[in-house]
Amino acid sequence: MKRLLCVWLPNWPIQRRRLQQPIADGPDSVSDRSAGDSDAGGSDTGDSDTGDSDADSGAGDTSENPPLLLWNQDARRGRLVAACCPRVRAARIRPGMSIAQAREMCLAASIPGLLIEKHDALLDRQSLDQVVWWMQQKISPLVAIESLDIHPWAGHPRHQCESLWCEIDGAAHLFGGESGLLVAVTDLLESLGLAGRLAIADSFGAAWAVAHTRIAKSHAAADRCFIVPPGTNRQAIEPLPVDSLRIAPETVHTLARLGIERVGQLLRLPRSGLAPRLGIHLVRRIEHALGEVAEPVKAFHAEVCHSETLSLEYPTTDLPILVDRVERLIQMVRAGLATCQRGALRMTCRLDLSVHPPRTIDIGLFAPSADAKHLSGLLIHRLEQIRLRGTVDRITVSVPLTGPLRTVQTSLFDSSSDDSLQSLSGSSISRLVDSLSGRLGRNAVVEVKLSNDPLPENSCFVVPLAGNQIAGNEVAGKQFSGRPGSRSQRSYDQKLRSRVARRNRLNPPDSGASISAATSGSLSQNPKWAPSPADAMRRPVALLSRPVPLTIAFDKDGFFADTQRPSLPNGLRVAGVTHKVIRSWGPERIETGWWKGPSIRRDYYRVETDRGQWWWIFRDSISPVSAERSLPRYRWMLHGHFA
Q1: pLDDT digits over 590-632, tens only?
Q2: Largest alpha-carbon pair distance within the chain?
Q3: What is the DSSP string of 594-619?
């Protein structure tokens, strides 16, 4: 009978974020983290709300690490909590909660220095691949990453891989038995700065259930490891909750209504009645947990990892010696890259010290590079900035992310255009970006990309320039609507252009008639004055990050914060200064789609004031007071300047 190991890395996004980019040292700084600093140590109970454990999650959340919260963009609900550290979770913050609500709860709980960052699922997966590679090198060659269903499982709303499966047949005796193998895996995770929960059973389903939901005696590493004796899968999973079977939340809710909360209660029911009432998927999960049906698992096959290691004969902290060894390793790595005609996009240098933990330096590059001198300069510059806590025993340089090299044909004859040719090949700009990213941090050197969001404040986003894949799997730039360049988006753009051109043919614009007094109100009702895509004044030169509220006035009625009149006001007051509207253009309706949550509908106007100011303002609807629910109220906001 096969023996299988499940390794669960609780709260993996927080562990990865703390490990690779320690916040205490700034972005892209050198990692300084031990296994004891892990945010998700041994678990006591499975948290049905988060998928992470509360009983153990406080282990290692020291004051050295500021409280951290990661968020994801949901197409319907906006920014939602993806993961949070134990100190934030102690304030009853849970994944799936809105960022605004989580921030208010953190303020009420007096959590100082809260850091809110976007969750990088791509980096999570790449880091998990590296853990799998180390498992294959040290434990067993047959290691796989858990496979997910289409929808999240009950108790685990974060829909991403956090567990590893390993077949240990023929490998356990090399470590003195299964207990020795668990000790070896625990030591490996601690050397990587990680903490996990481990379980060995006869099936993947049983090992997964025990690793995620069995109660541990303490936070010690030995108490977070479990061994299910051969042939006792049923006895091991009977006391566990039903959500340990990796089933849908709706199924768990239905079972709870029937009074079934434990797997043992579920196993006493006839399976012939479960399938037609609760679905065949529940029966499959029971068979997987009991080992009656083998669960298909695809072993992990990592890409060729260019890595070189050098052990020092005498441990040292002497910088010239370390620089010399790093240059040698980069030359060796560069030789391997040259045979594949690829260059480094992300490079890692690991320094094993005489005292725990090791130090890790991560370097991101703008374009693939196989220039040993350039790579050495970036790595040595970062090496000079760190302070080592002990002597260096071993140095490892690896390139986890590569890309194809770009080749440029050189001139047959000597000419003075060699420098310009090199600049056109991209080497000059890439070296500049690499140098700035190395000195300022990867997240400090970014590029601006357009998005499909109709709201002006969300029309663009930024992504780091260095350390990205060439193919462009950018999580931060994903939108729910059609992608730029997709067939649906192109067809929509073509229809929009033809509609605008047809409208301009039917109603040619008259520059003399496009200006009118704001009091007339006739211009705001004429749709032909909507700005065309070719209008240079369609959008302001300076867009405010947050719209500024305006106090408004109609004729001589005085100034008000809001009004029931939808027409454009005569007077505007901002920062105590009164402006009179002398000309206006509009309105232009901008609104969000129904599939993106609560609807936002704005009417934008371009106005010129008597003080020579050109503003971009909009009318926004606000909730009416209880006494006048039938009459909507409007508030005017300043959103940009044209000059």
Answers
A1: 888 777 767 788 899 999 999 888 999 999 877 554 444 556 7
A2: 92
A3: GGGSS--EEEEEEEEETTS-EEEEEE
Q: Which pairs from 328-333 meet CB under 8 Å and 24+ separation? A: 329/395, 329/396, 329/397, 330/372, 330/375, 330/376, 330/379, 330/397, 331/372, 332/308, 333/306, 333/307, 333/308, 333/397, 333/398, 333/399
In angstroms, rounded to a whole number, what is the distance separating the alpha carbons of residues 84 and 96? 11
Q: Are 219 and 56 a contacting pair, CB within 8 Å?
A: yes
Cα–Cα distance measured from residue 378 to residue 398, given in angstroms and rounded to the nearest whole number: 14
Cα angle at 445 between 444 and 448, to 5 degrees?
115
Dump pLDDT digits (tens) for 484-493: 344 444 454 5
3-class secondary structure for 184-219?
A: HHHHHHHHCCCCCEEEEECCHHHHHHHHHHCCCCCC
Please give the order of strands across the beta sheet that includes 68-74. 78-84, 68-74, 115-118
Q: Model confidence at 576, in pLDDT bands (50, 70, 90)?
A: confident
- Which residues, in sequence order, are bridge partners of residue 311? 394
Q: Which helix (H) or strand (E) holds 289?
A: helix 280-290
- DSSP lists the bridge partners of residue 604 as 588, 618
pLDDT digits (tens, 9 = 90+) for 326-344: 999 999 988 888 887 888 8
Give the bridge partners for 83, in sequence order: 70
- Rounded CA-CA distance 276/481 in Å is 37
Provide the token pair at 614. Answer: 């050109």
pLDDT one-digit tens code per residue, 347-393: 889 998 888 788 888 888 888 888 888 888 888 888 888 888 889 99
Give me the helix-helix angle, 249-257 and 271-278, nearest 10°. 120
Q: Which percentage of the chain shows pLDDT scores above 90?
A: 23
Which amino acid type is present at position 409?
A: Q
Amino acid at position 79, single letter? R
Element (H, E) at 456: none
**Cβ-count burial 71-104 (b if 16+ within 10 Å, e if not):** bbbeeeeeebbbbbbbbbbbbebbbebebeebbe
Q: How far apart are alpha carbons 253 and 241 in whole angstroms?
A: 12
DSSP state of 115: E
**At residue 45, does pLDDT exceed 80?**
no
Residue 558 exposed, middle or buried by CB count within 10 Å (0-12, 13-18, 19+): exposed
d(CA 344, CA 568): 57
pLDDT for 220-258, tens place per residue?
777 889 999 999 999 999 999 999 999 999 999 999 999
